[in-house]
Amino acid sequence: MEGEHKQRNWMVEPPTDRPVRVYADGIYDLFHFGHARSLEQAKKSFSNTYLLVGCCNDEVTHRLKGKTVMTDQERYESLRHCKWVDEVIPDAPWVLSQEFIDKHRIDYVAHDSLPYADASGAGQDVYEFVKSIGRFKETKRTDGISTSDIIMRIVKDYNEYVMRNLDRGYSRKDLGVSYVKEKRLRVNMGLKKLREKVKKQQEKIQTVAKTAGMNHNLWVENADRLVAGFLEMFEEGCHKMEQLKANANRRGLANGNDEDDDEYYYDYSTEDEEDYSNGAEEIASA
């Protein structure tokens, strides 16, 4: 077994009379520092390295891996602006062949050592061939960052990013959001901001409460004033929010466009609701 492992990881001797031509490939969607670090490792794998980077086009990528955020031209251009890259090879193949290696005079192929599933069906590992001929150079992945992680962050806070772009001038059609969804998002985000203001009022009350033992009369006066201000703000805010929500529902129904999909609306967690109710009880007891 040990002999087989060594055989799979053997490497041909690098050239000494010219730069070592190292090839790295990938999709490089939403180019991030994890990509840059892997290319830096490839560039620094030898003292004199010429780094070629292959990037698959949209047709191949979408068929074998899935939809990308950036187009192939955008991904190529991102790579051209990475300081470690000497040459970008567009329309790179999913699996490398001897013909491709010979054409670009590749000495080594750089990638992390984990088997990369071959979605094309040609084999179990995309880099199986280059490993077998001793032209594979291992690099290390950067933990904690990937294109999928970045996309998940956006999906997780979908509502906030929709509101962010609506506030910046994008239309609901640009974002693929219906009229009713837009209005409900605005209502819910308004209520969220209102809750944040309520919590700030609670914090002010609690701060005053700490000094109550020193000056009881001052505590009562401040507490009454803060609670009265909070109640006035809360009642006014709730009235505006409910009025806006009712108008949005009526217009949506009139347009026949009430796509009631709660997964797009702000979802208050149980913890938030408990904090909110507890805060209300504290104010009432004050």
TrEMBL record:
Residues 251-286 are annotated as: Disordered. Residues 257-276 have a biased composition (Acidic residues). Pathway: Phospholipid metabolism; phosphatidylcholine biosynthesis; phosphatidylcholine from phosphocholine: step 1/2. SUPFAM superfamilies: Nucleotidylyl transferase (SSF52374). CDD domains: CCT. InterPro entries: CCT, Cyt_trans-like, Pcy1-like, Rossmann-like_a/b/a_fold. It catalyses: phosphocholine + CTP + H(+) = CDP-choline + diphosphate. Keywords: Lipid biosynthesis, Lipid metabolism, Nucleotidyltransferase, Phospholipid biosynthesis, Phospholipid metabolism, Transferase. It is an enzyme of class 2 (transferase). Its EC number is 2.7.7.15. Pfam families: CTP_transf_like (PF01467). Residues 23-152 form the Cytidyltransferase-like domain. GO terms for molecular function: choline-phosphate cytidylyltransferase activity; phosphatidylcholine binding. Belongs to the cytidylyltransferase family. Plays an important role in the biosynthesis of the phospholipid phosphatidylcholine. Catalyzes the formation of CDP-choline. This is choline-phosphate cytidylyltransferase.
